[in-house]
Write a structure and sequence with these properties.
By secondary structure, this protein is mainly α. It has helices at about 50-65, 70-80, 95-120.
């Protein structure tokens, strides 16, 4: 008996209207994502998941991400959107919040440095 192909994250993970196209291939980056062939349950937490189970699931999802050819594109998508849930590009939602906070701090530091630079040159 023929069964329909399993497509775990096709709709839930990356809505096609929001996904940036890959420059090098001219198509959506998520078409090459390894997670499209794995269980969606690895990447998104079920309700009331115990901490130990969540940590184990996230580590398993990160192992899938580690072998993905579009991990960087996925990570940048999740940081730019920003995606509030799940493992994207090898990072959990909490890890993405840390990355975003660091980027914001770095941008502030660069703006401050750029603002004080003309004063230092003039003096």
């Amino acid at each position: 008996m023929l069964q329909p192909p399993h497509q775990p994250l096709q709709v839930a993970a990356v809505p096609s209207q929001r996904a940036p196209a890959r420059e090098d291939e001219g198509g959506p980056w998520h078409a090459e994502a390894v997670c499209r062939r794995d269980e969606a349950g690895l990447f998104f937490a079920p309700s009331k998941e115990p901490t130990a189970a969540r940590l184990a699931r996230e580590e398993a999802a990160k192992r899938v991400c580690a072998r993905c050819p579009v991990m960087v594109e996925c990570r940048e998508h999740a940081l730019l959107q920003p995606e509030p849930y799940g493992v994207w590009g090898g990072l959990t939602a909490a890890e993405r919040r840390v990355v975003l906070a660091r980027r914001r701090r770095r941008e502030v530091e660069l703006r401050k440095a750029a603002a004080t630079e003309p004063i230092a040159q003039a003096g």
